[in-house]
Amino acid sequence: MAFALTPEREREVDELLTHYPNKRAALIPVLWICQRQHGWISPEVVAWVAQRLELSTAVVTGVVTFYTMFFQHPVGSHVIWVCRTLSCDLRGAKVIQDHLEEKLGCHAGGTSKDGKFTLLKAECLAACGQAPMVQIDDDYHENLTLEKLDQIIESYRGTPSAQE
Amino acid sequence: MSEQKPLLTSRYEIPNAHTIEVAEKHGAYKSARKALLTMKPEDIRAEVKKASIRGRGGAGFPAGVKWGFLNPQEGEQVYLVINGDESEPGTFKDRTILNVDPHRLIEGILITCWAIGAHTAYVYIRGELAHSIKSLDAALAEARAKGYVGEKPFGKPFEIQIYTHSGAGAYICGEETALLNSLEGRRGEPRLKPPFPAIKGAFDQPTIVNNVETIAAVPDVIEMGGEPWCNLSRLAPADGGVRLYGISGHVKRPGIYEAPVGITMRELIDVYGGGMLHDDRPLKAVIPGGSSTPVLRPDLKVDAKKADHPLHPWHGQSEIDVPMGVDTYRALGTMLGTCCAIVMDSSVNMVEACRNLMRFYQHESCGQCTPCREGTGWLLDTLDEICEGRGRPEDVHRLVEIANNMMGNTICAFADGTAMPLLGFVQKFREEFVAAVEKGRPLQARHDDSTAALVRGRAA
Q1: Percentages helix, strand, coil for chain B, rounded to the nearest 5?
Q2: What residue in A sits closest to B364 (Cα-Cα)?
Q3: Which residues from A are below 8 Å from B89, CB to CB?
Q4: Span B36-59, mean pLDDT?
Q5: Which of A142, B41, B119, B135 stands 20 to 30 A from B264 (CA)?
Q6: How far is CA B359 from the centre of its chain?
Q7: Mutating which of B85, B128, B213, B365 best tests the A interface, going by the most A Cβ atoms within 10 A?
Q8: Which of the residues in chain A have pLDDT under 70?
Q9: Angstrom distance (rounded) from CA B332 to CA B311
Q10: Residue B255 and residue A129: Cβ atoms within 8 Å?
Q11: How far is B340 from chain A (nearest CA, A)?
Q12: How close B322 gets to chain A, by Cα (Å)?
């Protein structure tokens, strides 16, 4: 199925293109706009972006595969990134990780059976002073205890997915 | 703590300081007005040089000197690029500026653009910090509406446009030339230097890349004057002013604190950080300024007997009693880096801590240069083997050998930034590595119950 942005998002792209001296520089921000709408960067998205910015699909794919935040496969309604790097590790990141794996019934890299949550491990998310922490979609949740984490997860269950 | 009134963090405690109304009520844009309307670019550059702001992104290069490398040719356009890719493990300071006081950064950008002759500035922020990007975008919209950013800032006919640019998850994009590639819509692979960005940077034009905190310091330098600002430091004139210190790990009050350049690690931990998290567990090691900076060990003494040694005044004292400065820490065999410390207490096994960081580097190597792409993997594999009880006697030496073969053999400093902390861990805690190899069984490391209990809380 062919991909296209909504007219409102198209206008965002038009505005972005005025920020740079060439079209290619808008590639990463445009991919972000697409992922917000579509949930992941499908081959159709790559083809659309390539045409819109006058690049080859190989160039676009090269960029998509370099950056960890562009999803190359469909993900759950919400994506949970658990920071595992040293400062978080020292303050119990492993406890957070184990708890989420058990609660969601999937390992890091997997998606819960109900399709609600994809669980991923993250490298340092620059919240070391508020460890342990997780990022869910765009939001940071810091200074976690398991009790707090459980409440946070429940609050996402009822909410629509990050993309539409 | 310091008696000096806060500068960088002066608006941190004020509610709604991220809005232009509140920020202006508390002094924002005064320096930018002064700079653009009453100062010549060369005068601003001279003040910033006198201020001796050592780059806050980790390398510690003096900002004023960096600006001096610009030499735009006829028809070239100068760009200012702000590095907000804050990803060095342990570092979380720039985010506070972006979230709480974005107008301070915008003001610094306006002054800097005028000083270096740039009409366009990009602020590159790591993709994970979606809220920081929103915060800065909202502040930029306010500043544009007021006419501070745009065709005539404060009425001055010198157009300045500022745009945010989001990354998408890649530590290496904090390296300035990788960042420029990412800004141009490419894979974030570092470029060969020379040419340096000041000659050929963004879009092949002369470009200055500065850290968020470096530029956020510029308004105070203009308000106070370069020399008085520099002299706030305990290490003036070589390393000037005040800076943001971060502290995380096993302390009671992790967070970001402003203090003069040159406080000691002991002060940072005991006074600012509130002391060790568990009273019965003393400090074992501290990574001083982000994960690439070699670890310090409080029971090691400074060896600087010769009177001309830069650390001679601290001869015989603990490593953590040396003032925190770019040059003092280099003399100590480590680096000040981003000035954000990771504190580890006596429960931490150093082999495990080292393995944690090497996993980070293995994950984040861009893969362009073989010694780095392969070396980071080998280091991690070897540490995995040791930690899982399959270490061999030669493994400790092998770690050192791999690291030595990575250093200096790659396009950017990433491989050095991996090898240096690895070598630091092995040199300073060799006995733990040897013990881990000799025991031949999994380490019963780290995941101690008292820290885990803090997380488990009542749900346990």
Answers
A1: 45, 15, 40
A2: A123
A3: 85-87, 123-124, 128
A4: 97
A5: A142
A6: 20
A7: B128
A8: 1, 162-164
A9: 8
A10: yes
A11: 9
A12: 23
Asked whether the beta carbons of B316 and B222 are under 8 A apart, the reply is: no
Query: From the list B129, B163, B169, which residue is nearest A67 (CB)?
Result: B169
Answer whether B84's CB lies under 8 Å from B124's CB.
Answer: yes
- Closest-CA residue to B329 (of B238, B251, B409, B256): B238
Query: Taking the mean position of all CA atoms in its chain, how far away is CA B422?
Result: 19
Q: CA–CA separation, B129 vs A121, rounded Å? A: 16
Write the pLDDT tens digit of every residue in B361-403: 999 999 999 999 999 999 999 999 999 889 999 999 999 999 9
Query: Rounded to an integer, what is the distance from CA B440 to the centroid of its chain?
Result: 38
Buried b (16+ CB within 10 A) or exposed e, A71-109: beeebbbbbbbbbbbbbbbbbbbbbbbebbeeebebebe
Strand partners, A140: A135
Provide the residue type at B177 as one letter.
Answer: T
Alpha-carbon dihedral sign for residues B247, B124, B139, A30:
negative
pTM of the model as a whole: 0.96
Q: Which of B354, B437, B429 is nearest to B396 (CA)?
A: B437
- Rounded to whole angstroms, the Cα distance separating B138 from B49 reads 31
Using a 10 angstrom Cβ sphere, with 0-12 exposed, 13-18 middle and 19 or more buried, the burial of residue B393 is: exposed
Whether the CB-CB separation of B53 and B59 falls below 8 Å is answered with no
Placement of tokens 């050929």 in the chain? B200
Taking a C-beta distance cutoff of 8 angstroms, is the pair B139, B20 a contact? Answer: yes
User: Of B93, B348, B455, B458, which to mutate for an interface test with A (greatest number of A Cβ within 10 Å)?
Assistant: B455
**Buried b vs exposed e over B152-186: b needs ≥16 C-beta within 10 Å?**
ebbebebebbbbbbbbbbbbbbbbbbbbbbbbbbb
Contact A128 B166 (CB under 8 A): no
Structure tokens at B363: 């994950």
